[in-house]
Amino acid sequence: MNKVGMAIEELHRAENDLAGKLLEISDRQKVDHEIFYLGRDLARWSQQHVRELARVGRDYGLDLDTEPEDDHTILARLRQKGSELLGRHHEPGLLLLHDLREIHRMAAGVSLDWEILAQTAQAMQDRELLATAERCHPQTLRQLRWANAKLKESAAQIMVTG
């Protein structure tokens, strides 16, 4: 496999992981409707990116799964139920901060991978790969900004109350 193929494959894995983490935090924070619904919307972006990477990966000899991993398992339902039972105690708040930090780190890494792929596509004059990066990267940046904004909004209250 060539270097571009390896970069596409790594980004495919990272987008899948980010989608899974967004679904996980959404399930775990079900009592917070903003996080529950917006987390699911943001996960759908990463899931679409997985499909697009699988499509453009074919040009580089890759056979990537076009269907993103999904989080409709028994464990997901248990996390949702646990979230409902815990409500808004301070321990779930610390868990929220942890989850948001992880989302931020993951989205930052995915963003860098998109940047590498875009620069590579531009140098290779691969219009399809560049168009994919230009479509997907802004959504990743929005995921990153959302996690950052949610951290800023929540951190002080969570850390000071108790």
UniProtKB/TrEMBL annotation:
Domain of life: Bacteria
Name of the protein in question: DUF222 domain-containing protein
